[in-house]
């Protein structure tokens, strides 16, 4: 028996790209900024279809964020596109002042996030971006789990008209397992599997890993709830509290440093509401390296197997 | 096309207004006991010229869609901006007494209208070097909508050390944004020392030219000269223009003039008295009268 | 009765400055980089005394961090000085790649951190810097509590020869309450007051607020342990675990956003070891504003009174 | 003063070595199935010249205190650097097969010797725009110690869009760092398109000159021309020098030459065969022989 089926693979960044094409058609105010990585982050299709609404700003991410703010000021809906590290880390102070503090409705769309960037290595693997964006007031932070959810998240982000949105997604092709009937609402976690022994709260690529882990654990008679926490900020506190109350044990799973990410957000909240044993599946305070995405997920302990052991560890700690 | 909704002042009026703005700055800083004297005094002539002659704007309707956009990239110059905005009618002039105090709309560095409610401020500044990019985005957006509004951005010279400005300059020239005019407050001073000691900027005009800009130099204290430069900048097609305005930090107050040590310090009581005695009262009138005998009790 | 006496006031940034003067004398490899805020961050004394080892880099913090890395590479001990936001936020990607990933022994010394920067307002109030630096692998993060501890921390940081150190301290004059006999070791929390009902884990200016809070609470017969957690990373896990075990209730206090800072670090660790009720005294996910330091500490809820209420809240939650 | 501990090659030898490095790049990328072809092929002549003629260095003692420092600011050019370092004797040439594989020292973007153990790499790069500042720090440090070592930093042209480079350029000139030589790989290409389409850089030499640099232009594929420019740069006193070397992306492989679409793509089997057939084998010999019949089974 399997909890959820996947129907082939497609890249989350393609979801972003396809959403852009629809938005370009629907909304003449949507403008896209490219930082000389248009093919990789897949804004090239938009650039071709709407050349007058695409602006190349060169390899200059700080400038890109300021330009986005200026465009927002005159009523445009700017989509700033870059790799995770260059979308969040390089222009942090610019995002902070010109966008977050100034509450500009800019969409910062970060492809190539996390360790699965793969062969490019550590400099290109943004494992800190959720921390950087989550700590900023007024910022909405979204980490969708597959192609379709990315597409829906990008489209839904236009509904946020006050303050910016940061969206992180990935380079590789990954399993598609949500469909149009899957609930998706910014700020509301989505329960992918019910369970009573523990809850895995996952974001991004770790959602599918969590589903697989839950399936395997079921064979060992361990019943695990899986929450897709696609919105890191604002956090769905209700869903977390419910999980803590009903299952009494939490595992968080993310493609991010162990500090300051999703796990951290959950721990912060539970410490203030209902302290609960929690295990972290995350990159353990180290930089990444070259390799293919799957191998790296294994080596850095953020795959299905890591989730399975974390669930077993947390169950031992459960009272 | 609607014209500016403010009355334009002539050269003499602009000078008088500049002096009034300088008086306002001294008084504001005396009350706030914190903030920047040197830079703001140095650009009072420029601010007077901009808000009472150059800009299309409507102080009573700060979101007027036909307005020119003005960005203060060097956010620490806030006092001169606030005084000018108040004088132009954006908000009650009495509010200048609240500079840098808790709960004020007159933040130490400018905070935007729709978050902090101060009309006339479009976006935050304070962390240096960010205004050029914002101006570029704004100019691109206006051009997309085929709108004639102009975009102005004012930079400090020390601020030009920040690489982001050069990124933005490149982009402005790449897109030939002739609806964008930058103004550089070339006072040869920054916090630590004179600019050539902290970080050599010369040959500054060559730098801008090599980045594809139309460069105009002027004396930032000679109002006709400045207006002339802005006029030429407006006429220049196909390229963004920059007006490099030579100024003196602390202009108008003898003991502050051209002295970088006045970058970020407010005057004390004695100094404020002396400064005001050098800046004759104007027809526009002060926003607050101090009771010098009682050492400011009225103001606090 | 008072737990600890303060002996006058002095600025933590003066502690940095005085340490620099001693280091300049003791170690000819110490070089200082200034970003056009030399007087405020108090590297002017060093610049005057050792002009050939002081370098002005203009208002260019990204450049400063790269230059620091280059100097470290040839055996110098570079001290990069700036305000908190411009030391951590503006050059984040440069610190990440050229310093943290490259493990360069650069000392990043951030004066004017936190909300007590005061009148300059939100753009200058770095409330996110602990998050940014804590999430970076190889980074040591220190937040000393008073003049002398800052001085000692700066001097002790030279002992860290592999990887960088980020140090945050403050603009205002603040009470001096540690002396040479106060224990200070990087990575080891210091117990300032013993107590059994709850523990306040504080850093920076909140340490003194915590001491005062403990004193007031004692009058109400509430006995509070006060830990000075001057090292945010690496975290003194032992001291935290001991506090959780022995007092069963934790309050964290810091001049930082509520997310990703000291409170977050403590919550992350306790969730993994011993879930414990915790209350956060921190800036509640909002930007600061102009005002004087003390007024802002009150308005943004990070002063003694906020700690007292947090202790009372956490005691209600304690089992 | 000790001289370089490597044997210098003459012009013909340098050309031959450059061709070998190009062959190595093709083979490395074919094996890694990921990485950048265009830029690395374009600067093979420069790398050959630097490591077999210009630099004072000791491949067997990569921390030799008398060495010149070389920084690759455009970290994506790693393949040409790795091939050159291996050919110069920094590490076993067979290790080139590990490019971008898990656990390798040959990271997709360079990781430093003392963290990842690859001799010859001083510091990480990959996030563009950071090398100039590092070079400046290094040059200042060497000057402080009155050491004669020189510092070289190589930039891509697209990389010059990053403002941090202009910050570093200003600082280098402010301190008159004549022990610093920058090299720009002026191939007029970056990822999205030709540089003038993505972000106009011209007049590039004027930009560097206005930032206080001594500017030398040369043909980056004519080795004597390049060496001549470097020679002049070394002699120039009082200012940092930049060698703007005109190159073609993908140089040496007909179907890649001057085509920006080859910026970040590795060749497939067919393309690699064709590329190698255009790059004649050299006296230095390949680091791996492919069994083309078996479609690379030996290599994988
Ligand atoms: C990113 C950033 N770094 C540093 C500062 C601190 N700072 C404020 S004003 C200033 C000097 C700017 O010099 P200039 O632009 O010439 O202004 P002037 O002194 O002439 O008023 C500095 C370094 C800042 N506000 N932002
Ligand atoms: C800060 C940063 N932004 C974006 C990138 C992605 N990137 C890698 S190479 C490159 C193009 C650089 O162009 P150029 O320097 O001319 O190199 P060439 O294409 O000629 O090899 C870009 C944008 C990066 N590595 N770092
Ligand atoms: Mg100045
Ligand atoms: Mg190029």
Fold and architecture overview:
The complex is a heterotetramer, with 2 copies of chain A (319 residues) and 2 copies of chain B (300 residues). With 319 residues, chain A is an alpha/beta fold. Chain A has 2 domains: 9-175, Rossmann fold (3-Layer(aba) Sandwich), CATH 3.40.50; 190-312, Rossmann fold. In chain A, 40% of the residues lie in helices and 20% in strands. In chain A, strands 3-2-4-5-7-6-12 form a 7-stranded mixed β-sheet, with helices on both faces. In chain A, strand 6 (140-142), helix 8 (147-157) and strand 7 form a beta-alpha-beta unit. Chain B has 300 residues and is an alpha/beta fold. Chain B has one domain: Thiamin diphosphate (ThDP)-binding fold, Pyr/PP domains (Rossmann fold), CATH 3.40.50. Chain B has a 5-stranded parallel β-sheet, with helices on both faces. The longest helix of chain B is centred in the first third of the chain and has 22 residues, at 11-32. Chain B is globular. The termini of chain B are far apart. The B-D interface holds B 161-167, 170-171, 173-174, 199-201, 203, 206-207, 209-212 and D 161-167, 170-171, 173-174, 199-201, 203, 206-207, 209-212. One thiamine diphosphate (TPP) sits between chains D (38-39, 74, 76, 126-129, 156-159, 185, 187, 189-191, 249, 263) and A (36-37, 59, 86, 90).
Order of helices and strands of chain B: HHHEHHHEHEHHEHEH
Structural Rg of chain A: 19 Å
For the terminal residues of chain A, how far apart are their CA atoms? 30 Å
Tell me about the biggest sheet of chain B? 5 strands, parallel
Q: The biggest beta sheet of chain A, please?
A: 7 strands, mixed
Number of strands of chain B: 5
The top level CATH class name of chain B: Alpha Beta
Q: Helical segment tally of chain B? A: 11
Strand content of chain B: 5-15%
Number of domains of chain A: 2
């Amino acid at each position: 028996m399997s909890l959820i089926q996947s129907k082939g693979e497609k890249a989350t960044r393609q979801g972003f790209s396809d959403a852009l094409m629809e938005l370009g058609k629907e909304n003449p105010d949507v403008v896209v900024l490219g930082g000389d990585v248009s093919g990789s982050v897949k804004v090239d299709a938009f650039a071709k279809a709407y050349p007058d609404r695409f602006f190349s700003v060169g390899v200059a991410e700080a400038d890109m964020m300021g330009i986005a703010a200026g465009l927002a000021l005159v009523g445009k809906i700017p989509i700033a596109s870059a790799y995770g590290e260059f979308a969040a880390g390089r222009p942090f102070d610019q995002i902070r002042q010109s966008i977050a503090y100034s509450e500009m409705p800019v969409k910062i769309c970060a492809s190539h996030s996390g360790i699965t960037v793969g062969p490019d290595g550590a400099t290109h693997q943004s494992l800190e971006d959720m921390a950087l964006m989550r700590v900023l007031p007024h910022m909405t932070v979204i980490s969708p789990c597959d192609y379709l959810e990315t597409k829906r998240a990008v489209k839904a982000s236009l509904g946020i008209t006050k303050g910016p949105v940061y969206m992180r997604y990935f380079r590789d092709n990954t399993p598609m397992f949500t469909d149009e009937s899957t609930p998706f609402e910014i700020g509301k976690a989505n329960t992918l599997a019910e369970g009573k022994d523990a809850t895995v709260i996952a974001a991004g690529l770790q959602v599918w890993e969590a589903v697989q882990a839950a399936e395997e654990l079921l064979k060992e008679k361990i019943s695990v709830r899986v929450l897709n926490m696609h919105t890191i900020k604002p956090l769905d506190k209700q869903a977390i509290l419910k999980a803590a109350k009903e299952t009494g044990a939490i595992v968080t799973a993310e493609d991010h440093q162990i500090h300051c990410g999703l796990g951290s957000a959950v721990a912060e909240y539970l410490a203030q509401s209902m302290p609960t044993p929690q295990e972290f599946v995350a990159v353990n305070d180290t930089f990444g390296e070259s390799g293919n995405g799957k191998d790296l997920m294994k080596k850095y302990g953020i795959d299905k197997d890591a989730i399975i052991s974390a669930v077993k560890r947390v169950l031992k700690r459960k009272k | 096309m609607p014209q500016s909704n403010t009355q334009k002042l002539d050269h003499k009026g602009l000078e008088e207004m500049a002096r009034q703005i300088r008086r306002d700055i001294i008084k504001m800083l005396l009350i706030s006991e914190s903030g920047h004297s040197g830079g703001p005094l140095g650009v009072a002539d420029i601010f007077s010229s901009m808000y009472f002659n150059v800009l299309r704007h409507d102080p009573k309707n700060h979101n007027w869609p036909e307005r020119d956009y003005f960005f203060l990239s060097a956010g620490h110059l806030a006092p001169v901006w606030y005084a000018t905005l108040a004088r132009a009618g954006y908000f009650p002039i009495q509010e200048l007494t609240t500079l840098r105090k808790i709960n004020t709309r007159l933040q130490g560095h400018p905070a935007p209208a729709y978050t902090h409610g101060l009309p006339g401020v479009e976006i935050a500044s304070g962390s240096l070097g960010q205004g050029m990019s914002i101006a570029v985005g704004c100019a691109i957006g206006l051009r997309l909508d085929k709108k004639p509004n102009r975009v102005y951005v004012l930079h400090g010279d020390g601020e030009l050390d920040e690489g982001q400005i050069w990124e933005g300059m490149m982009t402005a020239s790449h897109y030939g944004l002739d609806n964008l005019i930058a103004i550089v407050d070339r006072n040869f001073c920054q916090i630590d020392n004179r600019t050539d000691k902290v970080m050599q900027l010369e040959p500054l005009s060559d730098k801008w030219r090599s980045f594809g800009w139309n460069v105009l130099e002027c004396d930032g204290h000679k109002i006709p000269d400045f207006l002339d430069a802005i006029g030429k900048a407006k006429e220049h097609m196909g390229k963004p223009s920059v007006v490099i305005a030579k100024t003196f930090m602390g202009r108008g107050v003898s003991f502050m003039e051209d002295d970088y040590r006045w970058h970020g310090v407010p005057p004390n009581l004695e100094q404020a008295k002396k400064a005001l005695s050098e800046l004759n009262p104007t027809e526009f009138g002060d926003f607050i009268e101090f009771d010098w005998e009682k050492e400011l009790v009225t103001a606090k």
